[in-house]
Write a structure and sequence with these properties.
Helices cover about 40% and strands about 20% of the residues. It is an alpha/beta fold and about 300 residues long. About 40% of the residues are buried.
Length: about 300
Amino acid sequence: MNATIIIPEPTSIPSPVPSGGPVLMACDGSAGSCDALFNAARLASAALGGALEVIGVCEPMPGVSAGMDVLPVPADLDESRRATMLDDLRRAVQIAAAGDPSWPITVVLGSPPRTLAREAQRRQASLLVMGIGRHNPLDRLFGTETTLATLRESRVPVLAVGSGFPALPMHAVVGLDFSAASVKAAHLALQLLGPGGRLTLVHVRPRFEHPSTDWQAWDADYSRTLPPLFEQLRADLQSDKGIIIETVTVRGDPAPTLLSYAQQANADLIAVGTQRHRFVERLVVGSVATRVLRTARVGVLAVPGEVGAS
């Protein structure tokens, strides 16, 4: 077995995620739905240097079946619902301690995942901030799946937070496979940390082992490849906030191993990159990002890679 390690060379590691574009906060204005988002959105806006914009998406009412025909919903009904959501959002921003009435607020009609992804790309947003349910099974089912569906569509990084997300995260764990997306996730997570925080770069190695000489040689080559990649990335992660950057290598299945490590380390945020493979990627974002987003009890930052990236 003449296996080779398929890991990007240090020179292919990209620059930090560009900042300056607006931070787009998705909310529907319902009671309690926006409070958890405001602090995260304000934090991201300050960290990335982009203005904060609030968006709500009102899904059009489906047509009503009447025998063999489908009766369309009157257009003014959807417009009325859109106007109601806009009023709810304005009220939520005014009531919230972290809200700011000067934030631009818009509500558009459409499918929430597709519309949010489209609006984020059209506005050249630096980040899309969304809520994610964690209180009961229905929250976990619908809140999580909406966020995951948006990530499938989005070309913009998504920060998903629950009610327990801190006003100033101090410890971020990054799932690092040295892909362009995971490296961007590390840069973006670094920007979101508070002064004196900690950034832990976690690389999960394959658990599989084999007594053959070929396997042992492959594993030894793998081990020699990791340190220079880690060092290159550490050198590229610049911060004037006194952030402690540490590297960890563990063995196991990537998603559960990363989740377990983050829980034991009391991390505030888990950051992952997602690989995009055109049509297939639209169906499955990636097993690691999907399982982390569905299971994590802390904030999740998911950074999409370029379409067709490997």
